[in-house]
Amino acid sequence: MEKVKSSPKLKFSMLEIDGSRLEGGGQIVRNAVALSVVTGKPVRVYNIRANRPNPGLKNQHMHSIMALRELCDAEVDGLFLGSREIKFVPGEPRKKRIKVEIPTAGSITLAMQSLWLPCSLKGCEVEFVGGATDTKWSMPMDYVRFVFLPQVKKLGFEAEVEIHRRGYYPRGGAHVTFKIGKWKPEPYEFERGGKKGIFGVSCSSIEGVAERQKKAALRCLGEGKIEAVYEDAPSPGSSIVIWADYEKTLIGADALGEKGKPSEVVGREACERLLLEMERGWSVDEHMGDNLVPFIALSGGSFTTELSMHTRTSVWVCNLFGLDVKVEGHKVWSKK
Q1: CA dist 244 to 50, 214, 311, Å?
Q2: Per-residue b or e along 109-141, where b marks 16 or more CB atoms closer than 10 Å to that residue's CB
Q3: 301: in domain
Q4: Is pLDDT above 70 for 23?
Q5: Whether residue 63 has pLDDT greater than 80
Q6: What is the mean pLDDT of residues 174-183?
Q7: Annotated catalytic sites, by residue?
Q8: What Rg do the C-alpha atoms of the chain give, in angstroms?
Q9: What is the pTM of this model?
């Protein structure tokens, strides 16, 4: 993908973004720094995560911004744990390989929200050491592999994921490599078409758990093919990701295991979430929607979804950067 052109006047101004608006969480920061690199527009984000119990930057935000700084020689002010304001001045992406170390169980997939688009300007390999592959409030890694990446591939975006080691809360300790190609954006109109089948992956670091999650999900669904996988990890944990494969899209859902939560409940939760998404009739699921917005903003195209506050926030941030994304009812679209 080539850098989005911005006017010379904007090169000397700094876009101001209030991090307490709408969703008011880390998503604003992640999208803002990513789009700053793509558009070349410096940005100041203030009131960071003001709507959260512990405001300010968390570890995964810091480490993804540090990775962006390394990728494009950016100038960053205010980069420290708990910081409620940062100034980010991007440079040209130069590195072909970067390493991100997360000493906590911070979400790798959330950190990647800042890196997908900047890395696609010229192509880049990103290695994560530490962090969690499957944790609360974020896409599980198997959702990224089997739903998110196949969906953005329809827009011409090429990327691969290699999981060397899973990581769960509280230790994290994952090891994952992403290989992202140079993106040549292609518009795509997401629609459903006929259903081809339901598939899934149930994963656990504890023997027997993945199989029980799988069986519960299948009993609830009444159809489908789900693979049960055992993978070692520093902390015990589990996840299940299931998706309905349609002719022109994928609809996904997931659930995470927790201490004291029966495996059967985890499997049934994922099933119920998928059935709800299928019943809604939209062309992408709710969680895909907010992640898809910046891609559609740059490639053009459209989709329909259950409009969450995260999706509305993503649209708002994109439009602040001059990317024309529109919302009409449940439809999100952009023309390039």
Answers
A1: 36, 15, 21
A2: bbbbbbbbbbbbbbbbbbbbbbbbbbbeebbbb
A3: no
A4: yes
A5: yes
A6: 98
A7: 310
A8: 19
A9: 0.94
